[in-house]
Amino acid sequence: MSSPIGIRHLHAFIEVSRCGSFTRAAGHLHLTQSALTATIKQLEQDAGLTLFDRTTRSVVLSAEGERFLPVAERLFSDFNAALTDLRARAQLQQGHVSVAGSPSVVTRLLPSALSQFSRQYPSIKVNIRDESAGNLEQRVLSNEVDFAIAGNHSQQTDLDYAPLIRDRYGLVVPCDHPLATLRSLQWQQVPDDNLLLLSEDTGIRAQLTRFSQSGQIPLKLDRVQIEVSNPAGMAALISQGLGITLLPALAADVHSFAGLAFIPLDQPVIEREICIITRKGRALSPAAAALLDTLRQHLEHIALPEWVHTTE
């Protein structure tokens, strides 16, 4: 059975055509002349055509060889370009990373980590998506993003959830609210007559609903009359005196909540777990893995907000 024709046969053919000599071509390719001759012979046998006219003094392309040369050169060039691109990606000289994150993660954690990553890997393109929890998981499942950073919204069996940080739930109120000066508050003391909540498609609301239904928190969330789809909108409503809300500490530490008071809740102490969400069985690209490593290292060296801590 003859050997399959591959890139080495093209390389040998191109080099012999350029040198006009098996001896010189063998030297350039670091092969013995007999090995090079056998390689060209395999190519000619597979093609069923003579590609070189040989004399005792020279080796020149046949008519068929002349027609094949530009094709061989293009194929060889494309192969080398593709291989160079793969090596560049492996060495993080170029590439693309797509990440999805909850609003608080995108606003509070990613910017400074991305700044460090961009300085170290300036040729890597990064795309950031700010999504609700359910959409985040779907983005990962459909391979639209390399990974997501958010809470475990629905415990998808095809996803891996690696804990990254935890942040404690608290009550967010205007600074002039009667409760604003308290250092902590029990869940049973939370007034529910003017409570605002995030909409049901958010991970925070889904988690609060689970806590309420399981009896962990003594609140009836179905009484809430105003729902908001994102924390920034929630902050605006609270600032206008339209109510108060329940949020994890990181979500309440973004710029839009400046001027509002966060009161940590206890009895029980309840925390949100923010995870790195990846698809099971799918390895991260070198660029995505590098970004994730940068984020983890960054979290080890920055001062996190009060009531927020890493899980490691």
From TrEMBL:
Pfam family, one: HTH_1
Gene3D superfamilies xrefs: 3.40.190.290, Winged helix-like DNA-binding domain superfamily/Winged helix DNA-binding domain
UniProt keyword annotations, A-Z: DNA-binding, Transcription, Transcription regulation
Transmembrane intervals: none
Positions of the HTH lysR-type domain: 5-62
InterPro entries tied to this protein: HTH-type_LysR_regulators, LysR_HTH_N, LysR_subst-bd, WH-like_DNA-bd_sf, WH_DNA-bd_sf
SUPFAM superfamilies given in the database record: Periplasmic binding protein-like II, Winged helix' DNA-binding domain
Transcription regulation recorded as keyword: yes
Family: Belongs to the LysR transcriptional regulatory family.
PANTHER family referenced in this protein's UniProt entry, alphabetically: HTH-TYPE TRANSCRIPTIONAL REGULATOR YBHD (PTHR30419), NITROGEN ASSIMILATION TRANSCRIPTIONAL ACTIVATOR-RELATED (PTHR30419:SF8)
Annotated protein name in UniProt: LysR family transcriptional regulator
